[in-house]
Every structure is written in C-alpha cells, then in structure tokens.
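Wait, can you check?
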Amino acid sequence: MSKDQDHTVGRRHLLRRAGTVAAGLAGTAAVGAAAAGPAQAAPGQPLLQGQVNEAATPTTVRGGSATSATLRLENPTITDMEGVQVASPTLRLTPTGESINWKSEVGSVTMDRYGTIWAVTSEGLPPMEGNFVEYVRTNTNTNQLVPVVPQRVIDTRTAAGRARIVNPAGNLDSSGRLLRGHTIQVSLEDFVFFGEAVYGNVTVTGALAAGFLQVYPHSAQRPPAFSTINFQAGQTLSNFFLTGISPVIDYISVHAQQTTHVILDVVAFVVAAGRVNPAILPTDDQLAAEDRRTQLARRTKPSWAK
C-alpha cells in the first residue's frame, strides 16, 4: 500500500468497529508509551523519571490475571478555579507525522501532528503491502457541523462568479448560464478540506423555461427522480440544500433540466478528519461567546430536568 493510498483509505474509512477500537486501545497505547523494564540503552539500569529514555527494543508487559488490567496508570485529581475536580494527565502520546506507518504491528497506536489518534487494526491482504490503518473517532475527528460566515461559491452571471466551476467549457451558454441537460462540477476547496457534507442555499434566475435544478455529490451517479429546486421561466427563486461532498475531492455537482443562471452560497460544513478554512469561521469574539455557552451548558441543567 502506498502512502497516498494509506492516507485516502485512512481518512475516508468509516470505522465499523469504532467503539471497540476506541475502548480497547487505551491499554495498547499505555504499553507502547510506558516501558515497564529497564532502558535498553543501559541494560540493567532502571527507567529514569523526568528524562527521555531511549529503548532500542520494545518492552512487553504481560499480566498473569484473567480479570485484572495488565497495566494501570493512576492520576491524581485537582480542583480548578471554579471548584470542579479535573484529572491530571497520566499518559502523553507525542504528536508526530501525518499518520502511522502501515508496516507497524497490529495494535500499534500513535497521534499525528493534528491531534488525530491512529491505530493499526488488522493485517493487510495480499497483494497490498503492510497493515490496515484507521483513525480512532474522537471529538477531534468525529463528524462535526461547522457553521461558517456565509460564502458565495458561484454566480454564473459574472466571469468572477464562474471561477470555481471546474468544467465550464461546453456547459455554459454565452451569458454564463448552465445549459439545459448539462452538469457542472463546483470546487469547494477554498472553503473545506476533506469535507463530508455541505449546507447551503441555491438560487436560479433568468431561466429560459420551466424546469428543475439538482445539487448532489460529485462523481456520484445523478439521481433522476429528485430536485433541489423547481422553477418557472424567468423566475428568481431560492431553496436551502444539504448534500454530500465527493469522498475523493471537495467537489459537488449541479445539473440543470433547463438553461438557467445558478447562484450557490454555503453556510456550514460537516467534517470528520477534515478541516474548514479558518478564514471563514466566526470571529474570535463569537467563538469565545460560544465557548462560554458550552461551559455554562455543562454546569447547568435544562428547565425540564428537575
């Protein structure tokens, strides 16, 4: 398996065993990070606390009980300024790299430099080289709805507004309208990286005849029996939409049954391992207010919870 294949599979693979992996990896991570025996660099000497210990060979901790944990990491609790008890850290995985080496042993875990935890969950099948790498679902990479400052993606009425249309040639008329029976691919790469879905608003205007418009994931077969918006000739009409994004590249498709101008705006993205362009996120003041709201929600109860 090449590095690119590993990234594509790893980022897009939905964990069928997400709960099992997440629950079962804590012990694995501990074993990998905490050497229970002497440092290999100095055989016979103990591990030195507070210093970096170089272990040339792995140390295995094997428990003799069928019911007790092989390794326990205990951490004290402290009380924060608001009187809430919080746990002190007991284990730290140093964030490095983009993922985990697919030649690592099954059960190996790491954290990449973006904060995503990766696990080697099974052996690769021939003729693929190496093992199967998946990311563990956490609050960092689980599906999140990310509202953004509304952004105009395309407006076929102007040349600048058509810049994000990937395949304009042969699909637009001399005025820039999307031609009857044609489909354009629209790039969202200025706004999102490995997005899962997009929320937005689509507007049609200047249509030459009554018809409908479809917005759907790029590379997917066009569904024949649905419409995102229906319109009459010459009508200006808008409708809200939600659609998935191509699993390979951040494109969506727009198909017109009748020739019409198309305006596309986005208001939110769904991401998992991907990211949203920080330049289109709410301001720092808005994010700070949202953080305070979240903290308040955690410490209070709704009116119906007496």
Observations:
- DSSP finds three helices and 13 strands in the chain.
- The first helix runs from residue 3 to 12.
